[in-house]
Amino acid sequence: MYYGGIEQEIISLLEGSVKAVAADLGVGLPPSNELKVELDIPKERAHGDIASNIAMRMSKLARKSPLDLADIIISRFRKDLSNSTLVSSIGLVEAKAPGFINLFLSDTYLHGVLGRIAKEGSSYGNSDIGKGIKLQIEFVSANPTGPLTIAHGRQAAIGDSLANILKCLGYDVTREYYLNDEGNQMNMLGNSIRIRYMALCGIELPFPEDGYKGTYVHDVAKLFFDKFGEKYKGEKSIDVFREFGLEWMMADIRKDLEDFGVKFDVWFSQRGLRESGKVDETLQSLREKGYIYEREGAVWFRSTDFGDDKDRVVIKSDGSLTYLAPDMAYHREKFARGFTRVIDIWGPDHHGYVPRMKAAIQALGRPVEAFSVLIVQLASLYRAGQQVKMSTRAGEFVTLREVMDEVGKDVGRFCFTMRRISSHLDFDIDIVKKESSENPVFYIQYAHARIWSILDYAGGMSAGDKFNPALLKEPEEIELIRSLRQFPLIVNLSGRHLEPYMILQYMQDLAAMFHSFYNKHRVVGDDADLSGARIALVDCVRIVLANGLRLLGVSLPRKM
Predict the structure, then answer these.
(1) Hey, is 141 helix, strand or coil?
(2) For 129-158, what is each residue's pLDDT tens digit?
(3) Crossing angle of the two packed helices 66-82 and 6-25, in degrees rounded to 10
(4) Burial of 224 (0-12, 13-18, 19+ CB in 10 A)
(5) Cα separation, 125 vs 544, whole angstroms
(6) Is 29 helix (H, G, I), strand (E, B) or coil?
(7) Which of 4, 115, 458, 503 is 20 to 30 A off residue 384, Cα-Cα?
(8) Which residues contact 197 (CB under 8 A, 6 or more apart)?
(9) What tens digit of pLDDT does each residue of 267-294 get?
(10) Contact 246, 186 (CB under 8 A)
C-alpha cells in the first residue's frame, strides 16, 4: 500500500521505535521487507484511525507475546512521539489483543482535514503514485456480431471507473477497445445478414444452425435492402454483407457506450494488425527465440516453458490462425507503443485463457507483473424476485441498451460496480428504481443534492469561507471528519487492488453518516459560528461525494 502525508510520518517514527526496541531486546531484525511496518484502516472505529500489526509479526523473533510486545513498542513510540512534529496529531496510542497497535488521531489534526478538502476541492483524493507511468486498460472488446449485453455493460462500468481511478492516482491511462473485425464470427454475421436479405428479395435460403438469429439481424438486412434494393439479389459472396454489418454493429456499440458514459481513446483493429504483417513478425520473433515449433502439420507455441499446462496451437493444419496468434501480436504491439503496464478485462468464459497469455507476455520478453487480467463475473437482473429476460431485440440475452432504458445510466453504472469483480452480481430493478434509502444510488445522490439545498439556504456559504473547526465536537461530526480523511486512502486501495467497488462501498457509508448527522443536528441555526463550521463540514462531505461519484461515472444532481 502507498502511504502519504501523516501515514508515512507515522511509519517512519514507528520503524524507529521498533528498531530501538529490537536493539534493547537483543533481537536481530531481518534485512528483508518481512518486518517492514505496514498500516491499515481498522474496520471498527473503536480500534482507532490507523493500526499496525508489527508486534504480531515480530513476536516470534522477540520471544514475547504479541500483546506484551505491542505495549513495549508503544512505550518507546510515545517517547519518540513527544519529540516529533506528530505530537499534536496523535491523540491516543493503545495495544489491543491479539497484538495490534492502534492509533487515534487528535481532534486538532482531524479539524485540519476540512481545510485540506476545502483547498484541494475536486482534486482531493488525487495523488502522484502513478508517476506518469503509461498504462493501458483494454475492456469490453465485444465481437461486433451483436448488441452489447448486460455482461458487457458490467465490464464497461468497471473498466471505465477503474481507468478514472488510476488516472486520479497519477497514471497516464489509455482506454482501448480491441475490435475483432475478422474471422469466422464476422463471416457468420455476414452470411446471416445475406440470408435475411435474400428473403426480402423473395429468395428463401436455409438458415445455418450456427447463424445469428437475433431480430437485430433482420433490422440490418432491412437497412441493407432499403439502401441497395435488389442490387445484390442472388449474391453468393458474403463480403459486402459482412462489411455492412460490421459498420452498423460498430455504430450501435459506440452509441451504447457513449450513452453509458464510456469513451475509448483507441479502437484497435485486429484486421489492421494482421494486414500490417505484425502477426507474422511476432510469430517469427518467437520462432527465433525457440518458442515456436511445428508438429502434426500445425504450428505450436511452447507455452509450457512458462508454466502453462500444455503447449498451444497458433496456426492450424489448414493454415488458419487461432485466436492466440493475433492476441500475442496485439499485446506485443501494446508494449511497443510504450505502455509499461497493461490491464485486460475479460469475461468468465476466458478464465482458462489467462495462463497462455501470461506465457506469451513472458516469451515476448516482458515481466509477467506488467500484465494483469481481471475476470469480471456475470450480472443478472431481477424483478420481484424473478430473473428478468426482457430482450425482444436480441433473443437470448439482456442488452445494455435495455438496462439503460429501464433504469438509466447512473443506476446501471452504479449497480454494475456494487460487488467485487470476482463476485456474480444480482440486482433488483424494482429496488434500484425506488427513490428511497433502499436504492443505493438515490441514497448517495440525495445526500449530495441535500447538501446543495443547505448551502443555498445558507446563502452560498461553503468550506472555502472562514470558520472555526474547533466548534465541531459532536460524535457525529468527528465521525464524518474521520471518514472524509480516509477518502484518499480508499482511492489508493481501490487502485492498488483494481476494485472500484471499494469506492462505492465507502460512498454508501459516508452518505449514511451524513444523513445520520443531518437528522440529529441542525446545520444552520441561531449560533452563527457553529453554523459556519457545520456548513463547512457538510460542504466537505459534498466535495468528497462529488469526487467519488465522478470516479464511478455517476452524475452529480443539485436537485432531486
Answers:
(1) coil
(2) 999 999 999 999 999 999 999 999 999 999
(3) 120
(4) buried
(5) 8
(6) coil
(7) 503
(8) 221, 224, 225, 232, 241
(9) 999 999 999 999 999 999 999 999 999 9
(10) yes
